[in-house]
Amino acid sequence: MGTVEMLTAAGIGTGDEVVVPSYATTDAAEAVRRAGATPVFADIDPRSLCLDPASVAASLSLRTAAVMPVHLFGRHADLAGLRAVAERRGLLVIEYERAAPADESTRRRQENAFYLNARLRGVETPTVPPGDLHGYRSYVVRVPGNGRPDRDAFARALRARGVRCHVPVQTPVHRLPSFRRELWLAETERAADQCLALPVDASVTQRELHRVVAACNALGGLLPAAV
C-alpha cells in the first residue's frame, strides 16, 4: 500500500494536517497533498537530520491528524519519541517509507563510512549514538561556517580534486514555491547550508576513499566564497 493510500485508509483528507520534515525531498509533502490534506513542516534533530519530536509537538494544531517521519540517508527517525508526542494527542504516526533492512550493500557502505569517520578532519562526520543504526545510504558531513558559500566552495574544491560529492538537500521544502511557508526552522536551514554528501556507495574503491580523505584533510575545513 502506498503512502497516499495509507493516509486515505486512515481517514485523513481534506481539512486535516500532517506534520512532515522540510529537510527532505518533496515526496512526503506531495503524498499528503495528494491525499487532500495539508503538509505542516517541523524542524529536524541536528544529529539524525530527521524529524525532531519537540518541534513536532510545537507544530500541532486542532487540525493535525498524523505525523509522517522520513528516514533520511540511512538514519532512522526517532519513532519512539514521535509516537510519544502523537499518543498524547491521539494522532497517527505514518512512516513515509519503512527503514530498509541491512544487506551486503549496507554492510559495505558501513565499512566505507567507518573508514571515513576515523580519518576525516575539517568536516563534521555523522554522529550515531550507541545502539542506533545507520545504513549510510548517503554519507552526509557538515562543512560548518557562516553559510552556504563555505560549503559550496569546499564542494567545488573537492570536485576539482576528483572527489564525487553533492548537496543532499538543495532547498528545504517549505521554501520551494509550490509549498512556501513563512516560518523559520533553524536546524533545517543550518543543515541546508552546511551538509555535503561524500561517496561511500558499495562500488567505491579504497583508492577513492583515500582520495576523499586526502582532499578533505588538505583543504582543512572552510574555504572563502571566491574559491
Automatic annotation (TrEMBL):
GO terms for biological process: polysaccharide biosynthetic process. Pfam families: DegT_DnrJ_EryC1 (PF01041). The keyword Thylakoid does not apply. GO terms for molecular function: pyridoxal phosphate binding; transaminase activity. Keywords: Aminotransferase, Pyridoxal phosphate, Transferase. Gene3D superfamilies: Aspartate Aminotransferase, domain 1 (3.90.1150.10), Type I PLP-dependent aspartate aminotransferase-like (Major domain) (3.40.640.10). InterPro entries: DegT/StrS_aminotransferase, PyrdxlP-dep_Trfase, PyrdxlP-dep_Trfase_major, PyrdxlP-dep_Trfase_small. PANTHER family: 3-OXO-GLUCOSE-6-PHOSPHATE:GLUTAMATE AMINOTRANSFERASE, TRANSAMINASE. Belongs to the DegT/DnrJ/EryC1 family. This is DegT/DnrJ/EryC1/StrS aminotransferase. It comes from Streptomyces eurocidicus (Streptoverticillium eurocidicus). The lineage of its organism: Bacteria, Bacillati, Actinomycetota, Actinomycetes, Kitasatosporales.
